[in-house]
Specification:
- The chain is of the alpha+beta class and 80 residues long.
- The chain contains 2 helices and 3 strands, in the order αββαβ.
- Helix 1 packs across helix 2.
- The protein is globular.
Length: 80
């Protein structure tokens, strides 16, 4: 099971890079199978490069630093 506090801590490390470009990220959920749902905010929200930011930035870093993370998806892609 993925530790939600570890995910949140790593997002805090990523946040300044996103904020430098006028964006931000909010942790929405972490599933038992390692799927992390986040909401991109600010300039990142409507940016055409947001999928690339998720995959090559947020997801890559979370997978490296938090054991059990399998992928990162936009919050709107998660069925409640």
């Amino acid at each position: 099971m993925v530790n939600k506090e570890e995910v949140a801590a790593v997002l805090e490390l990523i946040r300044p890079s996103l904020q430098a470009d006028g964006g931000d990220v909010r942790l929405v959920s972490v599933s038992d199978d390692g799927v992390v749902a986040v909401e991109l905010q600010g300039a990142c929200k409507g940016c055409p490069m947001s999928q690339m930011t998720l995959a090559n930035g947020v997801e890559r870093i979370l997978k490296q630093r938090v054991e059990g993370v399998t992928r990162v998806v936009p919050a709107e892609a998660v069925q409640e």
